[in-house]
Amino acid sequence: MGAFSHWWIFGREARRRRLLRRRAIPAAEWSAVLDAAPVLWPLSADERRRLHDLVVVFLAEREFEGCGGVVLDDRLRRLIAAQACLLVLELDLDAFRNVGSVLVYPRGYRTRRHHEDEFGIVSEGDDELLGEAWNDGPVILNVEDVLDVAEGEPFNLVLHEFAHKLDMLDGDEDGVPPLPRGLDADTWRRDFAAAREDLARRERRGEEPPIDPYAAEDEAEGFAVLTETFFCAPWLLEAEYPRVYAQLRAFYRQDPLARDDALAEIGSRP
Ligand SMILES: [Zn+2]
């Protein structure tokens, strides 16, 4: 590391410390944010404090924009930021360096999708989209689904879209984010593929899969959906696909199952 980058990081850290002094979220308002997101309930006091600091910096460094008539207030901005930052609680906020801005629409929106097959035949179809993450572009969310976070339900739009951003960090949206030392990309791919194939098989048989079969769509959706399950219903992921659980635990450096029994008491634990 050269002297320049050392001073750059030093300057950045000093700026972040100043931010934390000036823009700290008042305690009562911070509690309200945590209360509004069930996935944050099991966090320890120390984790809540560290999450607060990440949220303050994240909000200062990212542009949020309400679209289609959405008026973004502090509460909604913080609710989105807090859940996004849960992903990087044990990583580095720089993992979101590819998040340009966060656009928030009132509800899911329709878009025309353009498909081109191997013979160059183009077809178009309508897809109902809940959110999107563009490589080096914005994260797009909608208020309805951001607020639809039921206790113990393995769905969370914010975690989903920001997981796509982590996946894209190396330029490819292929379900394999840049892995830390100790995690092997081939093993990672094999474990996720096995889970996706199992979900697809169960759906074909007409079973009701315990995890959203959208995970089976492709590698990228597999990583995003199973990340949602990992944080929101860890007992479910551990029971169904323990190898994927172990991979995500090593990647995020968090163990939601061990975090707090309170989470296990919530909702649909078998
Ligand atoms: Zn997705």
Mean pLDDT: 86
Number of domains: 1
Principal-axes geometry comes out as globular
Q: What bound compounds does this protein have? A: zinc ion
Label this structure with key terms.
alpha/beta; 51% helix; globular; binds zinc ion
Describe the model.
- With about 270 residues, this protein is α/β, with parallel strands linked by helices.
- Helix 1 packs across helix 3 and helix 6 packs across helix 8.
- The protein has a four-stranded mixed sheet with strand order 1-2-6-5. The chain has a two-stranded antiparallel ribbon with strand order 3-4.
- It has twelve helices and six strands.
- The chain starts with a helix and ends in a 5-residue tail after the last helix.
- Helices cover about 50% and strands about 10% of the residues.
- The chain has a single domain, classed as Collagenase (Catalytic Domain) (3-Layer(aba) Sandwich), CATH 3.40.390.
